[in-house]
Amino acid sequence: MAEDLFQITLEVRDYECDLQGIVNNSVYQNYLEHARHKFLKAKKLDFAKLTAEGIHLVVIKAELEYKKSLKPNETFTVSVEMEKVGRVRWAFVQEIRRQPDNELMLKGRISGVGLNQNGRPHVVPELEPLLKQA
Amino acid sequence: MAEDLFQITLEVRDYECDLQGIVNNSVYQNYLEHARHKFLKAKKLDFAKLTAEGIHLVVIKAELEYKKSLKPNETFTVSVEMEKVGRVRWAFVQEIRRQPDNELMLKGRISGVGLNQNGRPHVVPELEPLLKQA
Amino acid sequence: MAEDLFQITLEVRDYECDLQGIVNNSVYQNYLEHARHKFLKAKKLDFAKLTAEGIHLVVIKAELEYKKSLKPNETFTVSVEMEKVGRVRWAFVQEIRRQPDNELMLKGRISGVGLNQNGRPHVVPELEPLLKQA
Amino acid sequence: MAEDLFQITLEVRDYECDLQGIVNNSVYQNYLEHARHKFLKAKKLDFAKLTAEGIHLVVIKAELEYKKSLKPNETFTVSVEMEKVGRVRWAFVQEIRRQPDNELMLKGRISGVGLNQNGRPHVVPELEPLLKQA
Q1: For an engineered disulfide with A121, which of A88, C31, D33, D125 has Cβ 3.0 to 4.6 Å away?
Q2: How many domains does chain C have?
Q3: Nearest to A15 among D13, D17, D34 (CB)
Q4: 3-class DSSP state for residue B63?
Q5: Which of B118, B117, B120, B126 is closest to B90 using CA atoms?
Q6: What pTM value is reported for the model?
Q7: Amino acid A134: pLDDT
Q8: What pLDDT is attached to residue B133?
Q9: What's the domain range around C53?
Q10: Which residues of D touch B (CB under 8 A)?
Q11: Where are the beta strands (DSSP E) in chain B?
């Protein structure tokens, strides 16, 4: 793991767990999204502000591999790396790892595109410095 | 579309929409899950009951292609088809289509496995009649 | 119950249930909100449109009495009545009843106020015809 | 504010905000619940474990006063105090305050009761040391 990998640490909240006693599948996307927005904000890209300006960073594909399930009271990290995929496309590569044992719970690849107010693909120059060449 | 395709009709609820004024990405997984559980129940497989019996139908992979965004007040269908992938594996192939124009909003492929109380892969014989050979 | 009571019929979704196997407490507020927005829309008041125009109908108090718990697969009605409380204040009186036995699950009283773009109380003339004198 | 007031610090997540650009009303109950469970756990009462043992701590009434709205990127504290109301009844008195200005966002009073597996009121002796005489 690179030393400078961006990650946040969160904790399972009981209301995020479902009948099965584990975190509901859809909630992992909440975790991933929150980590992405924190990542963008740490890079000085404020998601809510971009939205207010009419620039939408839109997810076009989400690939989620569920490895193990998070349970009540567990703590976990959510990492974020961003890869350039095309001129207006990028992908977030993310992992959720239970702590303190660092066990992999979920691998996610979230692909997106910038859209302007008219819903047309739109280069978001502010993203460029964040993108690794894949 | 096959005449006997299983689908449910739902309606966007305002609280499911986020800052961008559209349904939040994670909510589509809620829609897909609800449709799957209705499908299983229609086939006489009660998800909550299976869980109570210690059999967990666990999602191991979700691939979601976001085509367009649902907005407040829109109505949509969520379809469910189930494919056999291996001895203990299956996949749900699902589509979310806005109504009444039937425009495709999301394509999902949700792969899963049956697990018993010990977390070991487990054939769920009740599923077999539901599975199309892929 | 008045013949013309506004109500909608919904169904519990498994992801709305928590570790206790019942609908999570916070989810009832989702149900109530959805019913209020449908009520307003039925009365030709579009909540999302009002928001876009800078008029916010803001909840200032919620009083929720939890009588019984909804469980997976149950169907229920959510009713809405609106009372005038003051010049810029109103209250929604709501009930959630399990069907088909009509058993009372929750009684709610949601008090609100109209606010304009500057966050000041604001008469919403469109609401007046909807308000019963309490 | 008492020096020993129990409180946790959280941060608004963008997906918790709705069309109005503020935290959705129902989400505050999630915050309050999470703080209560953390409070109980800090006092060595594990909510998930109690549930597994068939003891349900059930909310019977929630009174929520919405003072101001939390917005994206804001940090806030959620406090918890517990009062004895009757033999099997108690109430959580809670406040949500934006930080760092400590502005009051929401006051909540959540009343509850212990129920056993048969749904009958049940003294939860483990709670007694936590209860202030109101």
Answers
A1: A88
A2: 1
A3: D34
A4: strand
A5: B126
A6: 0.91
A7: 52
A8: 60
A9: 6-133
A10: 14-15, 17-19, 21, 24, 26, 72
A11: 6-11, 56-66, 75-84, 89-99, 104-115, 132-133
Sort out which chain C residues have CB atoms less than 8 A from B37's CB and list them. 13-14
Q: What is the pLDDT of residue A1?
A: 47
Residues of B in contact with D15 (CB under 8 A): 18, 24, 26
Q: Is residue A11 part of a domain?
A: yes
| Rg over CA atoms, chain C | 15
| ipTM, interface predicted TM-score of the complex | 0.89
Residue B1 lies in a domain: no
D47: phi then psi, degrees, rounded to nearest 5: -60, -45
Percentage of the residues of chain D whose pLDDT score is greater than 70: 96
Q: At A29, which helix (H) or strand (E)?
A: helix A25-42
* Backbone dihedral angles phi then psi of residue C101, each to the nearest 5 degrees: -85, -5
Is D126 part of a structural domain of the chain? yes
Does residue A89 belong to any structural domain of this protein? yes
- For B41-91, what is each residue's pLDDT tens digit? 898 887 677 878 888 888 999 999 999 999 999 999 999 999 988 888 999
pLDDT value, residue C102: 98
Say how far apart CA A58 and CA B13 lie, in whole Å. Answer: 20
Distance from CA of A91 to the nearest CA of B (A): 13
Q: D52 in the Ramachandran plot: left (φ > 0), alpha (ψ -120 to 50) or beta?
A: alpha
- pLDDT tens readout for residues D25-74: 999 999 999 999 999 889 888 767 787 788 888 899 999 999 999 999 99
Specify the range with the lowest mean pLDDT, choosing from C26-30, C38-42, C122-126. Answer: C122-126
Contact between chains at A18 and C15 (C-beta distance less than 8 A): yes
- Specify the pLDDT at position C3: 55
Q: Is C33 helix (H, G, I), strand (E, B) or coil?
A: helix
Which chain D residue is nearest to residue C65, measuring alpha carbons? Answer: D61
CATH code, domain with C80: 3.10.129.10
